[in-house]
Design a protein that fits this description.
Strand order of the largest sheet: 1-2
Number of strands: 2
Oligomer: single chain
Structural class: mainly alpha
Largest sheet: 2 strands, antiparallel
Shape: elongated
Number of helices: 11
Strand content: under 5%
Helix content: 55-70%
Order of helices and strands: EEHHHHHHHHHHH
Length: 362
């Protein structure tokens, strides 16, 4: 007599009856996978919600009132608000009628209300708006860090950055539109897999491109500062460093999402960028304030210049330019360098290192 199959209680099957009387067989592993997925992705979005809300509060508290009307503050704070709303709606989705056990396995969404559908369409729209504001903030940061480059190189970097950012925003817009149609009709004319993949890839390319620009510019700046024997960081170097941190970490997440099977790990990319971007502005702004307090009094400027043959005047990036990256790059003032300076500094380098006032040894 053939051996009877061993009963495995952990893999047993139970039956759900649909509204039309059809039997739906579900195994315990399938139910466990559904519950585990819902818990993991809820934790993910809840963490993003908490982090974004904390950074938003910090940004509002630490930003001076006169700087709250600048483009960079408006863009960064709006991005944080959008990310808070998106994460909140995502959490509501996994605790709402869309994620009920019977509705999920039977695909019966007859008890899903109109407001639930509207919230899911809103998520699709918020994803596109969030990416739009993130790319706009990155473009402003690129304009700041490339302000000292020659016009030819600036135009090339601006053009490439705009094209890459525009491509990512366009694919995300197309995906948002198709997602909204699918949510409303619960069906699609074609598979959205390739469109979602294209949107994620273009976003990853965009993040990696901006990261590359920041890393290269930071390397060049640190190399020049080493030649000039300068140790302290000015506001421009702070923007370089935070730019690298802002983009390298999200770039890593955008790559590992294709290799690590974690639920909705791609959503962390935009959240990380949205969280890190305001930090660079806060740090750089604090650096400007500290350096302004440390500057010698006007009556001592003559003595200082007579004692320092290589002194230059002004900051690398003025407080006005830091607050408004769209301001003219000529707002940064520069001084002169003598031929007997330890390092020969070209006219271009003077603009890059005009914040070195009183930092050379006498």
């Amino acid at each position: 007599m053939a051996d009877q199959p061993v009963f495995d209680p952990f893999r047993q099957t139970f039956t759900l009856i649909s509204g039309d009387g059809m039997a739906i067989n579900i195994t315990i592993p399938e139910l466990d996978a559904f519950i585990l997925y819902s818990v993991q992705i809820s934790i993910n979005h809840a963490a993003q919600l908490g982090a974004s809300l904390i950074i938003l509060i910090v940004l509002l508290l630490l930003t001076k009132p006169d700087k709250r009307k600048t483009p960079i503050f408006i863009i960064n704070s709006t991005a944080l608000v959008l990310n808070v709303l998106r994460s909140l709606l995502q959490c509501l989705y996994f605790t709402g009628p869309f994620s009920e056990t019977y509705a999920y396995f039977s695909l019966d969404y007859s008890r899903v209300t109109t407001s639930d559908y509207a919230s899911q369409v809103t998520i699709a729209v918020l994803m596109w708006l969030l990416l739009l504001f993130v790319e706009a903030s990155l473009l402003l940061q690129i304009r700041v860090v490339c302000v000292t480059l020659l016009d030819f190189y600036k135009r090339i970097i601006y053009a490439l950055s705009t094209c890459i950012a525009g491509l990512a925003v366009a694919f995300r817009l197309a995906l948002s539109i198709e997602n909204a149609k699918y949510i409303v009709a619960l069906e699609s004319q074609f598979s959205l897999h390739w469109l979602a993949s294209a949107a994620n890839i273009t976003t990853s390319v965009s993040i990696c491109w901006f990261s590359l620009v920041f890393v290269v510019k930071l390397g060049l700046a640190l190399n020049q500062r080493k030649k000039l024997n300068v140790g302290s960081f000015g506001p421009m170097q702070i923007i370089f460093i935070m730019g690298c941190q802002t983009l390298i970490i999200p770039a890593i997440f955008s790559v590992i999402e294709y290799f690590v099977p974690l639920p909705s790990i791609d959503s962390n990319v935009l959240t990380l960028v949205t969280i890190f971007l305001p930090l660079s502005s806060l740090w750089a702004s604090a650096s400007v304030d500290n350096r302004r307090r440390d500057l010698p009094k006007p009556e001592n400027h003559g003595k200082l210049r007579s004692r320092n043959s290589t002194a230059t005047t002004g900051l690398l990036i003025s407080e006005k330019f830091l607050s408004d990256p769209l301001a003219s790059s000529e707002s940064a003032t520069t001084g002169t360098s003598h031929s007997n300076s330890p390092s020969a500094i070209s006219t271009h380098d003077k603009h890059l290192y005009a914040d070195l006032e009183a930092q050379h040894k006498a």
